[in-house]
Amino acid sequence: MALRKAPLALVPSTADADIHLVRTSIRRQPRTPWDSFFTRVLAGSLLVSLPVVAVLGFLTFQEGVQTSTDAATARGQATAEAAAIRIGAWLGERKAELRHIAEDSSSRTGHPAITALVARPIGADPAFEAIEIVSVTGKVLAATAGF
Fold this sequence. Notes:
Helix content is 52%, strand content 12%. It is mainly α and 147 residues long. It has a two-stranded antiparallel sheet.
């Protein structure tokens, strides 16, 4: 750091009325650690960059929230679609079973073997609690044991 030259002061001479220029000393205030070029540049750059970082952080957070919300929505829709497909397949299998029982029993009306068609072994598919075969008039022709 370069030294500053002391300012010149006007001092009247006592002998003649001449004015002489005399250098006076400068009293400097003690330096604080905060009074440096580095500290001022650092403070200025922080004043500029911290608000920018805060705004970018907020925008990044909002984008992350939106992305996770979209992902959860897509996952829920995929789960619902998969469940709908599985339910549709299960219902199709049950309809096929009922169609098979109806076709077999239509040719055997009045035979005691119809009850054997309707009866299911224990441990078979528990989709139906009971199955009845009913005539056109509403008379029960055959029913499972549980009904």
